[in-house]
Specification:
The chain is of the alpha/beta class and 738 residues long. 31% of the residues lie in helices and 22% in strands. The chain folds into 6 domains: 103 residues, PriA, 3(prime) DNA-binding domain (GIY-YIG endonuclease), CATH 3.40.1440.60; 71 residues; 182 residues, P-loop containing nucleotide triphosphate hydrolases (Rossmann fold, 3-Layer(aba) Sandwich), CATH 3.40.50.300; 180 residues, 3-Layer(aba) Sandwich (Rossmann fold), CATH 3.40.50.300; 58 residues, no CATH class; 88 residues, Ribosomal protein S10 (Alpha-Beta Plaits), CATH 3.30.70.600.
């Protein structure tokens, strides 16, 4: 008898082995099965098949039965899950949980049925009058249909106790009760005006042709579509998807975050409005019921176009023809909790496994993708002109070391920015202000000359650790004493800085008392529909100044916004992250694309202490290729991604000394295990050394093969057998080092 490893449905993480009796049929990975669990029957999903351990052979309980003959998870998706489990060092069942959301595995959210009252026989006037005297509520229910257009209505419309009333009427032959399944459509109530395809310009046409070629090519390459903001990438996606759907296949469109990219979703819904049920939108705010229905609509082929964030890469599309990853550089494609997969990278892998085309689109591609394009692994197509004929906005960089300062508090808004905002408000135009803020900046920057204390070996900003009173490099482990005066200008003002959006909002309200100001940040975004509501108000010009973190820079399109101010371009630059410069460049370029999208010309003002920084200078000249060239050169010389892979092992515990001791022990063992040329740091406190009541220590490893790093760390952690008080987290291709 063969054995099967089963992920048993339920609240806790149960993975158990069962035997496969011959009468169970063709049990394959991805199949749903019934199994005995203690004294009850449970359902589960087959993870893997194996020869049972001889010692256990006779003790294995057999599978009771196969639920569906076909696996619920396709072989391709099982493959993708196994690959990801190995690459990101997580258990296979964790990946399967991503593929089959809990609501799909727990059969209790099964299809939602509702009872409908169906009119069978219209009562005569006399019958109705008689009924009103004897049983008024029965009469009311029947009377409802006298004026209703349809002969059918949901039972729920008739209030409490309606069921027994309806049963009585059913007995009298007036009505019948029926069950109807309802599709819980998350966008019900929204109207989409059908849109027509536009006539593509020459560059767009070439891009579409390249995608079309890749759809049928024998050796398919991912297409990197590098197009400036407003160059018409979305129009190209729409037409490519349309071709796919016409040829009977399905398409997956990935976007950074649904609530922040409402326009993209709307454009897809509008273009495919004739087939209303064919576009499924997946996002984290769906209710269980909505998620269940969307999942089954996709799997059954009812919905053949799927739009969603990183988790949409696991959508059960059949006969997939095209995958699009919009804003492919966006950091939100990396999941920052376990499993720590990268949605874009899995999208490329899925397309490869499904043998379908994949397009990565961005105005500012990630350096990983740019590198792949330069080395010929990807096919590169560029859109260099704006499709709407708009000019790119003028970008001005203000050096905050010399700009006029406010007397009190932190210098948030320079005099020149304040005057520009006033001018725009006077003309009835709108302003977006951006606070660049990632995690907590613990780097040290001189407020007088802008000097940032960086690592001699990696050029990364050093992070200040209060407890040790040391500066540390989180990539190579270099340590230094914090300077008491600025090494550059000798100023004694060198200090830690950073201020939050709420503080800035306060200052703005004082500075522009007549303006309507609204703030959007992570706190606001946690409320369902809050961001959408605010953006709609902004569009309707009920808000003059929108203040937000980098999250509002994504995919917004507001014709009346003529000024975008970046309050502190530096905060994002000086964090211990090898991609800090890249992210800042991308952010500024994206922001610049937001100003002046309508008939009004736009202006961008960037406040900074380091005006000479390449990220700012290349962004100012709209020079994506120039930035990529110089940044790649820097990454190559410091041996940083994309020329190498980085994995971070974090050990967490409530007890500081336990975490530190365990990390030291692991580091000592790891030295003997890590195959050259891979390298590792000494154990260090994490840049945020304590979070959620846990102390965090890290080891960073670097090497040419991510899988070797991942497998080595996994083996290390498994063999160490950490106690209950310690948690080990492996982050492969880490994007955040906090
Ligand atoms: P991107 O996705 O690259 O930012 P969009 O697809 O949003 O660009 O296009 C920017 C604007 O240009 C939109 O208003 C769009 O309707 C318009 N547009 C796109 N393609 C064309 C075209 N071929 N002809 C005219 N206008 C176009
Ligand atoms: Zn200085
Ligand atoms: Zn270093």
């Amino acid at each position: 008898m063969q054995a099967a490893r089963i992920l048993v449905d339920g609240q806790s993480d149960l993975v158990l082995d069962y035997g496969i009796p011959p009468e169970a049929g063709d049990v394959k990975p991805g199949c749903r099965v019934q199994v005995p669990l203690r004294n009850r029957t449970a359902t589960g999903t087959v993870l893997t098949l194996s020869e049972p351990d001889p010692a256990w052979k006779d003790k294995l309980k057999p599978i009771l039965k196969l639920i569906d003959p076909e696996p619920l998870i396709s072989p391709v998706m099982m493959n993708l899950a196994s690959w990801a489990a190995d690459y990101y060092s997580v258990a296979l069942d964790q990946m399967i949980r991503c593929l089959l959301p809990e609501t799909v595995r727990q059969e209790n959210t099964a299809e939602k049925m509702r009872k409908m009252v169906h009119l069978e026989k219209r009562p005569s006037r006399e019958e109705l009058d008689a009924l009103y005297r004897k049983a008024p509520r029965q009469a009311q229910m029947l009377d409802y249909f006298s004026s209703a257009e349809q002969a059918e209505a949901p039972l729920a419309e008739f209030g409490t106790g309606a069921l027994s009333i309806a049963r009585n009427l059913e007995a009298k032959g007036f009505i019948s009760l029926k069950e109807e399944s309802v599709h819980r459509d998350p966008s019900s109530g929204e109207q989409f005006v059908p849109s027509q395809p536009m006539k593509l310009n020459g560059q767009q046409q070439k891009a579409l042709e390249e995608i079309t070629v890749m759809c049928t090519a024998e050796h398919k390459k991912p297409v990197l579509l590098q197009g400036v903001t407003g160059s018409g990438k979305t129009e190209v996606y729409l037409q490519a998807v349309s071709q796919m759907v016409k040829s009977g296949k399905s398409a997956l469109i990935m976007v950074p975050e649904i609530s922040l990219t409402p326009q993209t979703v709307q454009r897809f819904k509008s273009r495919f409005a004739e087939l209303p049920s064919s576009v499924a939108v997946l996002h984290s705010l769906l209710s269980d019921g909505e998620r269940f229905d969307e999942w089954h609509a996709i799997r059954s082929g009812k919905a053949r176009i799927v739009i969603g964030p990183r988790s949409a890469v696991f959508a059960p599309l059949q006969n997939l023809g095209l995958v699009i990853v919009d804003e492919e550089h966006d950091a939100s494609y990396k999941q920052e909790s376990s499993p720590r997969y990268h949605g874009r990278d899995l999208a490329v892998l899925r397309a490869h496994l499904e043998d379908c085309a994949v397009v990565l689109g961005s105005a500012t591609p990630s350096l990983e993708s740019t590198h792949n394009a330069l080395t010929g692994k990807y096919s590169l197509v560029k859109l260099t002109e704006r499709a709407d004929g708009q000019q790119l906005p003028l970008i001005r960089i203000l050096d905050m070391k010399t700009e006029g300062r406010n007397k009190s508090g932190p210098n948030v808004i320079s005099e020149r920015l304040r005057m520009s905002i006033d001018r725009r408000l006077d003309k009835g135009e709108q302003v977006i202000l951006l606070l660049n803020r990632r995690g907590f900046a613990r780097s040290i920057q001189c407020p007088d000359c802008g000097h940032v204390v960086t690592c001699l070996h990696c050029s990364l900003p050093l992070t200040y650790h209060r407890t040790e009173d040391r500066l540390m490099c989180h990539l190579c482990g270099f340590k230094a004493l914090p300077p008491r005066t600025c090494p550059e200008c000798r100023s004694a003002n060198i200090l830690l800085q950073g201020y939050g959006t709420q503080k800035v909002e306060e200052i703005l309200r004082r500075t522009f008392p007549a303006a309507r100001i609204t703030r959007v940040d992570a706190d606001v975004a946690r409320r369902k529909n809050a961001v959408r509501t605010i953006l709609n108000q902004f569009r309707a010009h009920k808000i003059d100044i929108l203040l937000g973190t980098q999250m509002i820079a994504k995919g917004l399109d507001f014709p009346n916004v003529t000024l975008v101010g970046v309050l502190n371009a530096d905060l994002g630059l000086h964090i211990p992250d090898p991609r800090a410069g890249e992210r800042t460049f991308q952010l500024l370029t994206q922001v610049a694309g937001r100003a002046g999208r309508g008939d009004l010309s736009g202006e961008v003002i960037i406040q900074t202490f380091t005006p000479q920084s390449p990220s700012l200078q290349y962004a100012r000249h709209h020079d994506t290729d120039g930035f990529a060239a110089q940044e790649l050169e820097m990454r190559r010389s410091f041996d940083l991604p994309p020329f190498t892979h980085i994995a971070v092992l974090t050990i967490r515990s409530q007890h500081e000394n336990m975490a530190e001791f365990a990390t030291r022990t692991l580091a000592a063992r790891l030295r003997g295990m890590l195959p050259p040329p891979a390298t590792m740091t000494d154990p260090m406190p994490a840049p945020i050394p304590r979070a959620h009541g846990q102390f965090r220590f890290q080891i960073t490893v670097k090497g040419p093969s991510a899988r070797i790093l991942s497998r080595t760390l996994r083996k290390l952690v498994q063999e160490a057998g950490l106690g209950d008080d310690l948690t080990a987290v492996i982050d492969v291709d880490a994007m955040s080092f906090m």
